[in-house]
């Protein structure tokens, strides 16, 4: 369902002060699964070169580390593009990773809550919630 995975509760009063930076990295316990899903989301022209896929994913996930190890605001796609090249020699543009193909439970859900803690709305895209 839309609520599978980790949920970040954002008070309505703070909604427009929250930015998307860092949330694309997901939850540490699911990082290898997220890396796996993102690498497998690549177009076939890149996936074909990343073999054996399981070994590449394990090596990339191990080398990727935590978001804090990267410059502030570095997206997981940009970090993955760097690490995939370091591990495999294959150059992958960061925009080749298709986050829309990542299973819902690996993506953060945002819940906008009123002062009483009741959810006013939720979704995977912070920008869409901010527009509402």
Rounded mean pLDDT score: 90
Give the SSE string. Answer: EHHHHEEH
Shape, principal axes of CA atoms: elongated
How many beta-strand elements?
3
Structural class: alpha+beta
Number of helices: 5
Regions with little confidence, pLDDT below 50 for 5+ residues: none
Output the strand order for the largest sheet: 1-2-3
In quaternary terms, these chains amount to single chain
Percentage beta strand: 5-15%
Helix content: 25-40%
Major sheet characteristics: 3 strands, mixed
The rounded Rg comes to 16 Å
Q: How many domains? A: 2
Q: Could you please describe the fold and organization of this structure?
A:
This protein is of the alpha+beta class and 132 residues long. The protein folds into two domains: 1-20 and 107-132, no CATH class; 27-105. The protein has five helices and three strands, in the order βααααββα. The protein has helices spanning 31-40, 44-47, 53-64, 76-88, 126-131, and strands at residues 7-11, 109-113, 119-123. Strands 1-2-3 form a three-stranded mixed β-sheet. A hairpin with a 5-residue loop joins strand 2 (109-113) and strand 3. The longest helix is centred in the middle third of the chain and has 13 residues, at 76-88. The chain is elongated. It starts with 6 loop residues before the first strand and ends with a helix. The relative contact order is 0.25. The model has no long low-confidence stretch (mean pLDDT 90).
């Amino acid at each position: 369902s839309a609520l599978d995975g980790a949920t970040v509760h954002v008070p309505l009063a703070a909604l427009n002060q929250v930015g998307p930076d860092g949330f694309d990295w997901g939850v540490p316990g699911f990082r290898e699964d997220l890396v796996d899903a993102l690498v497998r989301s690549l177009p076939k022209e890149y996936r074909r070169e990343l073999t054996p896929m399981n070994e590449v994913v394990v090596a990339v996930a191990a080398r990727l580390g935590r978001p804090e190890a990267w410059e502030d605001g570095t997206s997981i796609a940009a970090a993955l593009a760097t690490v995939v090249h370091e591990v495999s020699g294959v150059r992958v543009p960061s925009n080749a990773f298709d986050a829309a193909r990542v299973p819902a439970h690996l993506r953060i859900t945002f819940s906008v809550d009123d002062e009483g803690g009741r959810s006013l709305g939720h979704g995977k895209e912070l920008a869409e919630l901010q527009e509402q």
